[in-house]
Design goal:
Helix content: 25-40%
Shape: globular
Structural class: alpha/beta
Distance between the termini: 47 Å
Number of helices: 6
Radius of gyration: 19 Å
Order of helices and strands: EEHEEEHEEHEEEEEEEHHEH
Number of strands: 15
Length: 261
């Protein structure tokens, strides 16, 4: 049994690692979460998460996440840690279900999209050139300061197998600068039926608020939430919806946004 503290989203999440194969699990957690070490100071504590990996046929004590398949346990652990961090920052940060990358100056673009729609693929692609901040939850303050959450990326493997929780270090993704500021929000609209070049649709302020309001985690817990969101958007580039099919077709477009910041 060991205790690991995972950083990210300006929180510290205690993870209790147990089970009959706890040593293997402990090593895997440290590797997958290499970009989320325990914060040195200033982080808010979240609820703890317990996780157990067992040898088949050897039962362990109760835990929040249990199993005998390492990949599945790690995948479930990522979900539980993310829930704990979001809960710890309710009412403090504006948190979008989004990925984000930043240029060397810290100018950040956030890509909002539901799970399973190509967000991680885009972030992984752009993270080879720009600083990887997260592929899951973007947290920002009212002044648009970004709170990174460089969790492991969920990478598809063999058919029928769970996604592999993979460290951004193992994927060779760029590290971001210490301080990052949100400059643009992009709503991803990936569509297999899309033909031709990517299309950028600029949204007016009210349309942007209507599109973003259902996306964030715990928006209603912020003070005067819609006014809060409107104030944030007032300092950003206009929100756009990006229509595309393949990630390679948007690489230069996204790079242009970051290089022009």
């Amino acid at each position: 049994m060991t205790l690991v503290r995972l950083g990210g989203l300006s929180t510290s999440t205690p993870v209790l690692v147990t089970g009959s194969a706890s040593e293997e699990l402990h090593a895997a957690v440290l590797r997958a979460w290499s970009r989320c070490p325990a914060p040195a100071h200033g982080a808010r504590d979240s609820e703890h998460v317990s996780v157990a990996l067992d040898v088949p046929g050897v039962a362990s004590t109760d835990a929040d996440v249990t199993g005998t398949d390492l990949a599945r346990v790690l995948q479930s652990l990522t979900q539980q840690v993310t829930y704990a961090k979001i809960a710890a920052q309710r009412g403090r940060l504006f948190m979008m279900h989004a990925g984000a990358v930043a240029n060397a100056e810290g100018d950040t673009v956030a890509f909002v999209a539901p799970g399973g729609t190509g967000k991680t693929t885009l972030i992984r692609t752009m993270g080879e050139r720009f600083g990887y901040l997260t592929d899951e939850t973007v947290g920002v303050d009212a002044d648009a300061s970004v709170h990174p959450y460089p969790k492991p990326l969920s990478v598809r493997g063999a058919p029928g197998r769970p996604k592999a929780e993979t460290s951004p270090d193992d994927l060779g993704l760029v590290r971001p600068p210490a301080a990052c500021t949100l400059r643009r929000i992009v709503l991803l609209a990936r569509n297999e039926a899309h033909r031709g070049d990517p299309r950028v649709e600029e949204l007016g302020r009210y349309a942007a608020i209507a599109a973003l309001a259902p996306e964030p985690s715990a928006l209603s817990d912020l003070p005067r939430p819609l006014h809060w969101l409107d104030g944030l958007l007032a300092g950003l580039q206009p929100v756009v919806r990006l229509h595309y099919r393949e990630v390679e077709t948007v690489r230069s477009l996204v790079a242009g946004w970051l290089e022009a910041s």
